[in-house]
Amino acid sequence: MPTQNKDSAPYADVRSIGLPRALMYYRYAPAWKAFFEALGREVVVSRQSDRAMLERGSARSVDECCLASKLYMGHVESLLDACDAVFVPSLANLGRFKSFCTKYQALPDLVRNTFDEESIRLVSCVVEDQQSKTSMRTAFLDLAAQFGATPKEAKAAYKAGRVALERAEKDARESFEKALQGVERARKERRDEDADESLAILVAAHPYVSHDRLIGGPVVDALRDMGVTVLFADEFDRERAYKESGKFSSTMPWLINRELIGAMLCLRERVDGIVAVSAFPCGPDSMTNDAIARRAGNTPLLSLTVDAQSGTAGLETRVESFIDILRYRRKGGYLQ
Asked: Which domains does the chain have, with CATH numbers?
């Protein structure tokens, strides 16, 4: 049983944990919340993204950082006086060809140095399954011990997080398939001239892009305002998508890009169009987006890049034009 001293349990006195609503929050939030709550801690989530938060984060970042990283710093800043410590994990990989972008691996150091003058207190862990053999389970069991948890309590907290994440992923998969089946059913039931609302658009973007109100929100809102069904590639069956991505590349290292590409390959014949959204200047996306466009086949694809300087009007206009073209095409306006 770990003793609750400063060396073995440095986080024992932390009662509230801040979670920045950015980056991998959009993938692991259910697990993180359940884990810390099982340890008896209060979880404080930063507010929804807004322009002021982005501006604050940009002011603390170098120009070369991607939009999502700049926004993350804004979220961290918003939590400085709202909790005892901020949770910033280091995520390297979940195994071979299951790597994360290097910014996730370096994130604790970036945050610590960025907020050095504020003496920010970080709670962190390192997930590096390929080299150090530190799996997600190992990392979080060790983290629980640093909060003063017994081995039994640590296992229970990790299980609570894993169950919460599995439940959230299952709900997302079921909702995704239900929505897609609804569109396909509507196509069969409606007459051609009444088929506008049966369009299904797959949004292929990192979850912190597609589900963030500031980055991907304007694109998603524009699509929904056009009356189409929006499907998020990151909510598709991840295991199936990852396996399918092998047909695209046998060596691509990035896990999330693999899942997005695999989802696109599985669904391109079932959707009416694909909207790929990137946060400028995302390194992995810059190497995969062009290849994705070439593999989209006959499925129309709109590629959008969002940066800190662009407004929403141009994005909305491009989305509206894309949907108008798809509807005109559906009615025979273009050669198939």
From this structure: 16-164 (3.40.50), 190-330 (3.40.50.11900)
